[in-house]
Amino acid sequence: MPHVFPVIHHLDATTTFSEILVSRACGAAGVFLISHEGADLELLDIARTAIQENAGFPIGLNLLSMRCVKAARMAIEVGAPMVWADDMGVDSQGLTADGRAMASIAREEPQLKLFASVAFKYRPHEIDPVGAAAQAREAGFIPTTSGEATGHAPDPKKIVSMGEGGALAIASGMTPENVHIYAPALTHILVATGVSRSEHHIDPAKLSTLIGKVRPAVLV
Predict the structure, then answer these.
(1) What is the pLDDT of residues 52-83, one digit of tens each?
(2) Euclidean distance between CA atoms 36 and 62, whole angstroms
(3) What gap in Å lies between CA 188 and CA 169, rounded to an integer?
């Protein structure tokens, strides 16, 4: 089944630690931590402790204030097994200098999963989402796509076509009501709005329901 990763919007240490425990209790495969307030250095310290206290439960990072190469190096330093970047230097045209540097990191650090946003909201329009996903996989990344805006689900046909080549993550628009439509084409689901009761708090009932919907979706 696709791995479900709640995306925890960092507010403070107490809340972030608590939301990690909520995610674990609901059966999530791991979590991503992100700060929309630019508190990435604080988030790194929190991640270091959280990783130590939650052995075997993957805790990834999206460090919005840093370019992808620096973010990856900082994540490795604190022991994070996953990094997601809105711009990892890859699209259907190939790799930028940052993308090539990240591909080198992928080869050097095979334990590190790199989630690369492609055909993603608020990024330049991608004319070839399937090609972008293929370029990301070729570089050693997990292509990660979205709908047109936060909380907006993408066209299911887009997801099916992008997922035919292998690994594919989605980071927008998944809810307990629609996830069964998309799950068979996905390997990873990054979700926040669709399972939240507020910007910084997960709704355990929604998250548990979404995870429950995903499991049978890939068995039928």
Answers:
(1) 999 999 999 999 999 999 999 999 999 999 99
(2) 10
(3) 4
Instruction: Give the SS3 label for residue 128.
Output: coil
Top pLDDT among 182 and 147 is at 182
What's the DSSP call for residue 5? E
Instruction: Go through the domains of the chain in sequence order and give each one's CATH number.
Output: 3-217 (3.20.20.70)
Q: What are phi and psi of 32, to 5 degrees?
A: -115, 145
Supply the pTM of this predicted model: 0.95
Residue whose tokens read 């076509």:
161
167: closest CA among 188, 194, 146? Answer: 188
**Strand extents, DSSP E, the chain:** 3-9, 31-34, 59-62, 82-85, 90-91, 94-95, 113-117, 142-145, 169-170, 188-191, 196-198, 201-202
What are the tokens at 119?
């055909």
